[in-house]
Design goal:
This protein is of the alpha/beta class. Helices cover about 45% and strands about 10% of the residues. The mean pLDDT is about 95.
Length: about 450
C-alpha cells in the first residue's frame, strides 16, 4: 500500500533541504511514498505544456535519488486542469512529452491532478466528449498508457474528491460513476473523505466510494493541512481515523502543514497509525514528543538540556487538531466559559475560583513556554511556531487580566478599565468581514 506524504498545499513550497528532512522523518516512520505536488510550482499548472529546463530536471532527478536512497517512491504531479483543451491531440502530445521527459530522468511515479477547478466541460470540448468526467478519463488513460508501458505508476485526483463535492451522495454522482467506468485499471484515485478536511472517515464510506470508482481509493489526508487557515498550525496527533479503514484503501497520503518543521508529530503519529494495529492518539503523541524533544535543545546548554516534555506537550496542545484543542487547553477554556455565564461572577464561588486558577496557571505556562522557545538552538523550529505561540501568549494574558478584574468584584455598571486593554488586536479585511457575519460555534 502506498503510504506517505504529499506536498500538495497552496503557498510557498518546501526547500530541497526541507524535503530531505521530511524524507528522513518518513523513512523513520516506515513510509514509502512522497508526492511532489506543490501548488506553487509553476511547472505543475501554469507551464505544464513546457518541458523542464536542464537545471529544473536535475533538481527532480536529485530528489528522486534522495527518495530512492530512503526506500521512498517519488511521484511528480502535473495539473493541466486550468486550461487544457481535452479534445486537442496536440495537448495530449505535450502532456505525454512531459511524462516522457520525467521517465527519462528515472522517475516512475506520476500524479495527474484535476482538483479545485469548476466542474464544467469547456465549450470547445463538448462536440468530442459528453461529460467532464469522460474528457478527464480520456486524458488520464492516454497518459497512463505511456506511463504503464514504461513500468510507472499513476495517481489521479478527481474534481469531485470528497463526498460534499459529489453532491452529498457519491452513488448519485454521474461524474464519479463515469470515472469508475472509464478510467483504466491501474490508475489510483485520490479521495479526501466526506469533506476536504474530514473530521472522521468511516470504513463504510470508503467501501461505498470504492464501489463507485471500481477500485479502492487512495486517501489524500488533509487532517494536518493549514493552507486554508494560516493563523494556526496543526501540530497534534492524527485523529478521527480507525485502522479498519485501511483494508478499504490502496493508499494513505497525508498533506500536512505548509511549515515543514511543524509536521514532526503529524508525520510520526500518522506513521504509527499506519504501522500499528493498536493506534492510540495519546500514546502516539507521547512517543512522538519523546523522539522530537532533542530538536528543542537550548542554546549554550552544557549537557544537552531541552524544553521539558511537558512544555513540548503544551505547545502541541495549543495547536492540536483541526477540530479540537488539546485536552488541557479545551478543559480550561470550558471552565472559563462556564464561569463567565453570568456577567458578574461571585469571587467566593468554588467554580469561579477553580476556573480562575486554571486560566492563570495555563497563561503562566504559555508565557514560560514562549520565553523558553526564544532560547532554542534550532532557530528554524523557533520561528516556525513563534508567530502562533506569541498570539496565544498575548490572548491568554489579556483573558487573565479580565478575569483578575472580575475577581475584584466590580459593580454591575463598571466597565473593564481602558488602561488594561492590550493593544495587540489583529485587524485587516478578514477581521472586518468576520465582524459583519455572525459565526457559528465552529467559527
Amino acid at each position: 500500500m502506498l503510504n506517505g506524504v504529499i506536498e500538495g498545499f497552496y503557498g510557498r513550497g518546501w526547500s530541497a533541504l526541507e524535503r530531505r528532512t521530511l524524507m528522513d522523518w518518513m523513512a523513520t516512520a516506515g513510509m514509502n511514498t512522497f508526492v511532489y505536488a506543490p501548488k506553487d510550482d509553476v511547472h505543475a499548472r501554469a507551464r505544464w505544456r513546457h518541458l523542464y529546463s536542464t537545471g529544473d530536471l536535475e533538481g527532480l532527478r536529485e530528489l528522486n535519488n534522495e527518495a530512492a536512497a530512503r526506500g521512498i517512491l517519488l511521484f511528480v504531479a502535473i495539473a493541466p486542469c486550468l486550461d487544457i483543451a481535452y479534445s486537442d491531440p496536440a495537448e495530449i502530445e505535450l502532456l505525454i512529452a512531459r511524462f516522457d521527459q520525467l521517465l527519462g530522468a528515472g522517475i516512475k511515479g506520476f500524479a495527474l491532478l484535476f482538483d479545485d477547478i469548476p466542474n464544467v466541460l469547456p465549450e470547445a470540448d463538448r462536440a468530442r466528449f459528453s461529460s467532464f468526467a469522460e474528457a478527464q478519463a480520456f486524458v488520464a488513460n492516454a497518459a497512463f498508457e505511456q506511463i504503464n508501458a514504461a513500468g510507472g505508476q499513476m495517481l489521479f485526483c478527481p474534481t469531485e474528491y470528497c463526498t460534499r463535492f459529489a453532491g452529498g451522495d457519491v452513488t448519485k454522482s454521474p461524474y464519479l460513476e463515469t470515472l469508475g467506468n472509464q478510467l483504466a485499471e491501474g490508475i489510483e484515485v485520490f479521495w479526501t473523505g466526506p469533506e476536504v478536511v474530514s473530521p472522521q472517515i468511516s470504513a463504510a464510506s470508503l467501501e461505498e466510494i470504492g464501489r463507485v470508482l471500481k477500485r479502492k481509493p487512495v486517501i489524500w489526508e488533509n487532517f494536518h493541512a493549514n493552507d486554508y487557515d494560516l493563523r494556526r498550525v496543526i501540530a497534534g496527533p492524527l485523529g478521527g481515523r480507525d485502522r479498519n479503514i485501511l483494508q478499504h484503501v490502496d493508499g494513505f497520503i497525508t498533506n500536512p502543514n505548509n511549515e515543514l518543521l511543524a509536521n514532526f508529530v503529524p508525520i510520526h503519529t500518522t506513521g504509527q497509525f499506519l504501522a500499528g494495529p493498536d493506534y492510540d492518539e495519546a500514546s502516539a503523541l507521547d512517543n512522538a514528543i519523546s523522539d522530537w524533544r532533542p530538536q528543542f535543545e537550548l542554546s549554550f546548554s552544557e549537557n544537552g538540556e531541552t524544553l521539558s516534555g511537558e512544555q513540548i506537550g503544551l505547545l502541541v496542545e495549543l495547536f492540536y487538531q483541526p477540530f479540537e484543542l488539546g485536552p488541557r487547553v479545551a478543559l480550561t477554556l470550558s471552565q472559563c466559559r462556564a464561569a463567565l455565564s453570568v456577567s458578574r461572577p461571585d469571587p467566593g464561588d468554588a467554580k469561579w475560583r477553580g476556573a480562575l486558577h486554571a486560566v492563570r496557571k495555563l497563561s503562566a505556562d504559555i508565557e514560560a513556554l514562549h520565553v523558553a522557545t526564544t532560547e532554542m538552538q534550532n532557530r528554524d523550529l523557533f520561528h516556525t511556531f513563534n508567530p502562533y505561540l506569541l498570539e496565544a501568549r498575548e490572548e491568554f494574558s489579556h483573558l487573565t487580566q479580565y478575569l483578575n478584574w472580575l475577581d475584584t468584584g466590580p459593580a454591575a455598571e463598571e466597565v473593564f478599565p481602558a488602561d488594561q486593554f492590550q493593544n495587540f488586536y489583529r485587524r485587516g479585511p478578514g477581521v472586518a468581514v468576520q465582524e459583519i457575519l455572525k459565526r457559528d460555534p465552529a467559527g
